[in-house]
Amino acid sequence: MKKNNVKKRYDSKEKRIKFLRKKESILTFKDPFYPRGTANPGRTQIIVMGIKKSSSGAVQIIGYGYDSDWFDSLDKLLDAIDWDDMELMHSFYP
Q: What's the CA gap between 24 and 51, in Å, rounded?
């Protein structure tokens, strides 16, 4: 049986952080978030324009058009992103 030699793009925390901090990266979340309240449609993707950090250590993605929810830490933000789905979708591109 032939092995799949597709190189993983997000298989380490360092690679994930690097992609997260890259301007204009498109991120997909596991659960929808509601940047304009629950009366409006939820979002599962965001285009990264930057990262905002609070003095308490909470982080938020500043996005193009809308921002993500606040997360207590960078690790919690990384856990909220659907890396498996992104790995699958981005594997179609060289």
A: 12
